[in-house]
Amino acid sequence: MCNYSFSSIYMKTVAIIAIGDELLNGFTVDTNSHWLKECLWNFSLSISRAVNIPDNERLIISELEFCIDNNIDYIFISGGLGPTHDDITKHTLSSFFKLPIVINDDHLTKLKKKFTKKKNESGMDSSAQSMLSSQAEILDNFKPIPNEIGTALGMSGEYANSRFFVLPGVPKEYKNMITNHIIPYYISNEPISNPSITIKTTGITESYLFNMIKEIIYNNNKKFKFSILPHFTGVNIRIIQIDNNFCLDDTKKEILKKIGKFHYGYNNDSLNKVVSKLMLKHKLTISIAESCTGGLISKQLTDNPGSSNFIVGGVIAYSNKIKNKILHVPESILKKYGAVSSKVAEIMANNVANLYETDIGLSITGIAGPTGGSDDKPIGLYYVGIFIKGQFFSEMYQSKINDRKINREISSMAALNLLRLKIKENYE
Amino acid sequence: MCNYSFSSIYMKTVAIIAIGDELLNGFTVDTNSHWLKECLWNFSLSISRAVNIPDNERLIISELEFCIDNNIDYIFISGGLGPTHDDITKHTLSSFFKLPIVINDDHLTKLKKKFTKKKNESGMDSSAQSMLSSQAEILDNFKPIPNEIGTALGMSGEYANSRFFVLPGVPKEYKNMITNHIIPYYISNEPISNPSITIKTTGITESYLFNMIKEIIYNNNKKFKFSILPHFTGVNIRIIQIDNNFCLDDTKKEILKKIGKFHYGYNNDSLNKVVSKLMLKHKLTISIAESCTGGLISKQLTDNPGSSNFIVGGVIAYSNKIKNKILHVPESILKKYGAVSSKVAEIMANNVANLYETDIGLSITGIAGPTGGSDDKPIGLYYVGIFIKGQFFSEMYQSKINDRKINREISSMAALNLLRLKIKENYE
Q1: Residue B4: pLDDT band with limits 50, 70, 90
Q2: Fewer beta carbons below 10 Å: N end or C end of chain B?
Q3: Separation in Å, CA A41 to CA A17, A18, A182
């Protein structure tokens, strides 16, 4: 990532501490911490550290001391609240803060009720009952944070200059406590972030994009912080306002003028959502004929609720037999041009739209790798075909990567982007 | 996660430090650290911490002091090696270690060659040339780690009792340096991990699975460490040997005997790979008819190279019109039983196999949510149909989650698992 200027506003600091052996041994991905980072982005808070540590008393205490020594304002601790012997978080905090552990009666009553129900339903092991009270434990002086979804009670309290939040590691419970309890009661009074926007692009590399907009960046880097963030499916430009005398919107417009068709959305927009909205707006229907992507484009277009309003269905024509038998690509064409060709892509798009009786037909044929390439048709070559408003087109793309997964992702993005551009061209 | 016994063998310790503002503000997911944890799992090393910190000199130095005070043996530092002004890692390390920065001539020569080539190809900005030497910087006394893929040179050196590795944050470069340079030269002499195995299951919840095998766990928890790790698509059982006098294989067999059909593979096996292997082994071909999963099952079956040897193609029948027109499900049946029914699943499976002339037809129809449910047919209800060896079957499943993404994932797993069981039943 390249940042082109700096903000120096004072912000309260945050530490995110996720505890659990399973997070360190490569077995479980810590998705909670990333989610929390995104969630806190709306507030003017500075995240100083995000740490994974094992279920080890000494290492947990060292980390707590570190955060307190560094005057971290908000410390989120998660994991190790379960009922088994290696869940040591609460007892470690108790000895560190020198606060006894007490039982929260309200929570215990709720758990007992829940447990009795469950027991009747599924014949749950009765030894579990003895574990219940451990799930209602809380440090004396700390306030409970309710857990409407799972069993372990959360809690919050202050020590030195820091406020601590102690949460279960189960993602659904963690997110629920933060969204419905911690943010409303403890964080919502914090100042909100400086105005910012993320401009999302696809179909252009980082260095080309930078060349297009570098003058704008250099002329404005006292007013805004610019970050250019490349992903293999597209490059994002993030702009954060650092001087309130200038308007983010003007600079945004300047950039959009330069980058034109490569821009597809903002912030959390995904290309498939943008395309779906366009289709709903113009009341269009679509069918898809996929070869190399094997269902990925259809899967992406049906990811969002409401997609049954525009996607009628598709054909996965992984073999030439199906391209011929179901999509009626003539054998002579397959022989003359090969399955990976603009001709075949166009016939696939045209014929799937006819067969499925849709406004638009979208097709793709290519070579994802790791084998199947030749000098003529190397790995990473693919053609996207589109039938729209009675006409068909195709475009050729060439990725230089021999990575099956990446090539399938890139080529799906290219297909969705061509679809977006053609709808705009024909209907807007 | 529940661990049922502990290992107390001494192991060298590891810290993983990823540096970069973009890792803290929720914009970029730190996939490198997780990858490294998995990679180091093969060796008898204990990962003490994995940390994300921003491009901030004070915070970087605090973290280094922390690691050194805690006698961490191997410290992996990544990010902030780029040429822009916020890439401060090397300069921070230089002032912390009190080692001057020098230019590595070999690397600079290579970069100059590469740069000249690139310039001619794409008209790269000439101002970039002045950045080149920063990419060849190295701490005096540290050894270079070559970067065959990108520009920034890596390095390794010792300080206090710790060995430091300094790496670029770009995932491809990071992984290449670790795999091809750090592991062979610095880590490969470490003792390998205790024998271990992960048993992968699907179609059963954590508590049911635990009940099935808890006696084995209690009888063996001095010899092995057991971990039960739930994911929404399946539960994994990890067994690590802690006493060399006992054989992991016997305990593994005992567990397999108890869990039977729920077990589909080991370690890094994915269900789609296991199913693909079965199909190749028995020289079977398959076609798929998907409704609610909208292409996800076909996408998963074509994820792996070589899938064109068994998957011929599929029909995405997202609308009833296509179920009728392409898959020839009679309108009367759709009307009488509804699209989400065992009858329709069976006809879809049978007819896609006929139409595509394959040995097996696999189908799915269901309600992924968030809307479309009713009292009769709630969200999360789905039917998987299969045509195999001239017969067809279907199974009903009911997920209790109203989460479109999770329901699509769970139902794809259920479909692939039914496919696995039916192939085994009919061909093994």
Answers
A1: very low
A2: C
A3: 17, 19, 15
Q: Which residue of A has its CA nearest to B62?
A: A66
Residue with tokens 């992702």: A409
**How many structural domains comprise chain B?**
3
> What is the extent of the structural domain holding B106?
13-187
Residue B317 placed within a domain: yes
Same domain, B211 and B332: no
Residue A3 lies in a domain: no
Q: Which residues of chain B lie closer than 8 angstroms to A1, CB-CB?
A: 20-22, 27-28, 82
| Residue A7 included in any domain | no
Are residues B312 and A322, on separate chains, in Cβ contact within 8 Å?
yes
As beta bridge partners, residue A197 has A239
Nearest CB neighbour to A319, from listed B2, B125, B308: B308
Name the region of B4 (left: φ>0; alpha: ψ -120 to 50; beta: rest): alpha
| Whole-number Cα distances in Å, A16 to A34, B51, B225 | 10, 10, 28
Q: Are residues A154 and A214 in the same domain?
A: no
Rounded distance, CA A291 to CA A339, Å?
9
SS3 A78: strand
Contact B298 A316 (CB under 8 A): yes
In a domain, A280, yes or no: yes
pLDDT digits (tens, 9 = 90+) for A287-299: 999 999 999 999 9
Same domain for B252 and B321: no
User: pLDDT digits over A196-230, tens only?
Assistant: 899 999 988 777 888 889 899 989 988 998 888 87
Q: Check which CATH number belongs to the domain holding B146 and give it.
A: 3.40.980.10
Compute the nearest-CA separation of A418 from chain B (Å): 20
Looking at the fold, whether B298 and B395 belong to one and the same domain comes out as yes
Q: Are residues A121 and A230 in the same domain?
A: no
User: Angle of helix A248-259 relative to helix A206-220, nearest 10 degrees?
Assistant: 150
Q: DSSP state, A358?
A: -
Please give the sequence-ordered ranges of beta strands (E in DSSP) within A254-359, or none if there are none.
263-266, 286-290, 311-317
What is the interface pTM, i.e. ipTM, of the complex? 0.82
% pLDDT > 70, chain B: 93
Quick check: B313 and A322 CB within 8 A? yes
Helix-strand-coil split of chain B, %, nearest 5: 45, 25, 30
Kindly report the CATH number assigned to the domain that includes residue A280.
3.90.950.20
Q: What is the pTM of this model?
A: 0.83
B313: left (phi over 0), alpha (psi -120 to 50) or beta: left
Nearest to A1 among B20, B229, B404 (CB): B20
Q: Quick one: B68 and B150 in the same domain?
A: yes
Regarding whether B149 and B244 lie in a shared domain, the answer is no
Q: What is the gyration radius of the CA atoms in chain B, in angstroms?
A: 27
Report CA A393 to chain centroid distance, whole Å.
32
